[in-house]
Write a structure and sequence with these properties.
GTP binding; Ras-related protein Rab-4B; 107 residues; 26% helix; 7% strand; two-stranded parallel sheet; alpha+beta
Length: 107
């Protein structure tokens, strides 16, 4: 295993996916390496945009899942997680969906 800390989230990104002819590492080699070292793996292309956003989303989802399961405690000093300014946070809606507004209780 590559990471000495089980709570660290690492993603291996194979870049320049669009240049298949110039490939030096096969998908299978990289995928096997990632699996053996307990890493997430995606191939990306900045040129086409393929999997670029997904790499960030996949990493963020994994971190959030670890927080929700209790594996990571953002309150613990040295956890590597820092809350941002709540006034700057925005929930981003996936493309093609509309934001649902919460109804306020008039009790």
């Amino acid at each position: 295993m590559l990471s000495p800390c089980p709570n660290i989230v690492i993603i291996l990104c194979g870049n320049k996916k669009d240049l298949d002819a110039d490939r030096e590492v096969t998908f299978l080699e990289a995928s096997r390496f990632a699996q053996e070292n307990e890493l997430m793996f995606l191939e990306t292309s900045a040129l086409t945009g393929e999997n670029v956003e997904e790499a960030f989303l996949k990493t963020a989802r994994t971190i959030l899942n670890k927080i929700e399961s209790g594996e990571l405690d953002p309150e613990r000093m040295g956890s590597g997680i820092q809350y941002g300014d709540s006034s700057l946070r925005q929930l981003r809606q996936p493309r093609g969906t509309t934001a649902q507004t919460k109804q306020q209780c008039n009790c």
